[in-house]
Automatic annotation (TrEMBL):
It comes from Nonomuraea polychroma. Belongs to the autoinducer-2 exporter (AI-2E) (TC 2.A.86) family. This is Putative PurR-regulated permease PerM. One of its GO terms (cellular component) is plasma membrane. GO terms for biological process: transmembrane transport. Residues 1-22, 364-392 are annotated as: Disordered. InterPro entries: AI-2E-like. The keyword Cell membrane applies. The chain crosses the membrane at residues 35-56, 62-83, 95-117, 167-191, 226-249, 255-281, 288-305, 325-353. It is found in: Cell membrane.
Length: 392
């Protein structure tokens, strides 16, 4: 009787516990739980990205050297691979690629420097004459001489205030030179041992993740290669087109402006505008309004040809991003890393997007088969009431 009363009391207590509303995390509605979990994941990811960005900015020379070496490796790897197919040792092929880069960069720089030295006096006279014409136009139009002098003095004070500290400037120059030297050394090793380095990294990962990571990284690398080579070709076309217009109009320092156009073409959207504006301003000061308008027309034609024909054909759809994404990436990269950040922002965005897309689309590897359970004796059959009654 007491046992029955205890069982009844236990049942009533369990029923009462089941009637209570859930407490704690289970009491939160499912939608709010999903929002909270998603927000937490986003905050953790944002914090991780911010931490990585802070470390990269603090190690700016190292980051610049590694990034430049990767970009140059994507550009010069075909040269080293071609020499290797000709049975040239990997070390010599990598060294040939580095020397080719030095010659290609040093040649135009030497030519531009010689032209600048030869035309410096003429450019100085034309610049002073253009400034006198601009001063005469402003004083005879919207401004008087006193207002113009005040504006010039304010501009000079602003430039002096913005001038960097000589010691800081020297340190920045030394860091840049050190980063350039490190980039050349890393370029040599990447050209010689790049595939072996990547295989070593992949084999340090868990076996089930190796194929996915390798496929994602190769997709990102192919995107970087396509971007660097395509941008190089587009930049060369821009420089040749605008340079020819400047040479035909006999604009001073035409080769230097063409080389500047080539360099700024690596900064999407913003670089083309800045290089074109510099070319137009130099032409306006040196040759006058008519030639400046002609140069402006040449810049517009070249930019339209680039945006509507060259980029879709040469770079391809694999690397193309929406203009809004490009603008946001360039702005963020410039704010974080200056000019270098603006240059690498778009290819980095394209590489990350392509790698993540390929990694998510990669099929999940099948789980390994579980080992078979060892053979066991079958359990004895259950006893029946008849068996119990048949016992003595």
């Amino acid at each position: 009787m007491a046992r029955r009363l205890g069982d009844a009391a236990t049942g009533r207590s369990q029923a009462g516990a089941g009637d209570r509303p859930p407490a704690g995390w289970p009491a939160v509605p499912g939608l709010l739980r999903t929002i909270a979990a998603t927000s937490t994941c986003l905050l953790v990811a944002a914090a991780a990205i911010a931490l990585v960005g802070w470390v990269l900015v603090r190690l700016a020379p190292v980051t610049l050297a590694v990034t430049a070496a990767l970009f140059l490796t994507a550009l010069l790897h075909p040269v080293a691979a071609f020499l290797h197919r000709l049975h040239v040792p990997k070390g010599l092929g990598a060294l040939a690629g580095v020397l080719l880069l030095v010659l290609v960069v040093a040649g135009p720089l030497t030519l531009v420097a010689n032209q600048a030295i030869a035309q410096f006096d003429d450019l100085r006279r034309q610049l002073l004459a253009g400034l006198d014409q601009l001063r005469a136009f402003l004083t005879s139009g919207p401004l008087n001489q006193q207002q113009l002098n005040a504006a010039i003095e304010e501009l000079i004070r602003a430039l002096r205030g913005a001038a960097p500290d000589p010691v800081a400037g020297a340190m920045t120059t030394l860091q840049t030179l050190a980063a350039m030297a490190a980039a050349l050394v890393l370029l040599f090793f990447f050209l010689r041992d790049g595939p072996g380095m990547w295989e070593w990294i992949v084999h340090r990962l868990p076996a089930r993740r190796r194929e996915r990571v390798d496929a994602a990284a190769r997709a990102g690398w192919s995107t970087l290669v396509a971007y660097v080579r395509g941008t190089m070709a587009v930049a060369a076309v821009d420089a040749v087109g605008i340079g020819l217009a400047l040479i035909l109009l006999q604009v001073p320092f035409a080769l230097g402006l063409a080389f500047l156009t080539f360099l700024f073409a690596f900064v999407p959207i913003v670089g083309a505008v800045v290089a074109g504006a510099v070319a137009v301003l130099v032409t306006l000061v040196s040759n006058g309004v008519t030639d400046a308008l002609l140069v402006l027309g040449a810049v517009v034609i070249v930019q339209q040809l680039e945006g509507n024909l060259l980029e879709p054909v040469i770079i391809g759809k694999a690397v193309r991003l929406h203009p809004a994404v490009v603008l946001v990436a360039v702005t963020a990269g410039t704010l974080v890393g200056g000019i270098a950040g603006g240059v690498v922002a778009v290819p980095l965005t394209a590489v990350v997007y392509r790698a993540v897309t390929r990694g998510l689309a990669f099929p999940e590897p099948a789980a390994p088969d579980e080992p078979a359970a060892p053979d066991k004796a079958p359990p004895p059959p259950p006893k029946t009431p008849g068996d119990q009654q048949s016992r003595p």
